[in-house]
């Protein structure tokens, strides 16, 4: 059997990383130590498929927001240089106002903890990211707009590459080049 692994300083331990993905990351660590590259690649394929079936709250990045007013421009849009989590909050606040949902959903304010996801562009929110605080805003119609593929790459594959790349493993099974000629 495999003994205990002490995991430190990786996305599998960060609260920003969605919990399900943290579990999947931890599941890959013994493969890095004792398994083979193709086993790791099979896990990536399996997790990509599972990820696409998760609800938005399960794939969202956890964050806090502290500088909303400084980055909100005169039109209520995210201003130049706004960090991603701040852009997500500003986009959400505009969206609940424009969809007349301010009675149903609280706006995001300084210091709030939020969840955010990447969006396919172009979209009706004119943003590549949107967040929410307590309740997922179903009424905004985010289904089909959330970029599940980009979320998987950024929240799972890219962090896993910090381990797989140094040991020479690819995250996807790419055909080996025939160098016999």
Question: Can you walk me through this structure?
Answer:
The chain is mainly alpha-helical and 181 residues long. It has six helices and three strands; from the N terminus they run H-H-H-E-H-H-E-E-H. It has helices at residues 19-34, 37-51, 56-59, 68-71, 84-98, 148-164, and strands at 61-64, 113-118, 129-132. Strands 1-2-3 form a three-stranded antiparallel sheet. The longest helix is centred in the C-terminal third of the chain and has 17 residues, at 148-164. It starts with 18 loop residues before the first helix and ends in a 17-residue tail after the last helix. The model has no long low-confidence stretch (mean pLDDT 92).
Secondary structure layout plus pairing:
Layout: H1 19-34, H2 37-51, H3 56-59, E1 61-64, H4 68-71, H5 84-98, E2 113-118, E3 129-132, H6 148-164
Antiparallel strand pairs: 1-2, 2-3
Helix pairs in contact: 1-2, 1-6
């Amino acid at each position: 059997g495999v003994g205990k692994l002490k995991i430190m300083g990786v996305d599998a331990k960060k609260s920003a990383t969605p919990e399900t993905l943290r579990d999947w990351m931890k599941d890959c660590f013994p493969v890095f130590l004792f398994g083979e590259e193709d086993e790791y690649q099979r896990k990536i394929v399996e997790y990509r498929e599972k990820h696409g079936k998760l609800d938005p709250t399960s794939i969202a990045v956890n964050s806090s927001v502290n500088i909303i007013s400084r980055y909100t421009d005169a039109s209520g849009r995210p201003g130049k240089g706004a960090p991603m989590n701040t852009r997500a909050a500003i986009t959400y606040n505009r969206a609940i106002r424009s969809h007349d949902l301010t009675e149903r959903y609280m706006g995001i304010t300084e210091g709030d903890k939020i969840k955010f996801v990447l969006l396919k562009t172009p979209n009706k929110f004119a943003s590549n990211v949107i967040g929410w605080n307590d309740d997922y805003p179903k009424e905004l119609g985010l289904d089909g707009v959330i970029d599940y593929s980009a979320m998987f790459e950024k929240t799972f594959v890219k962090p896993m590459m910090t381990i797989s790349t140094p040991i020479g493993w690819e995250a996807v099974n790419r055909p080996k080049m025939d160098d016999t000629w």
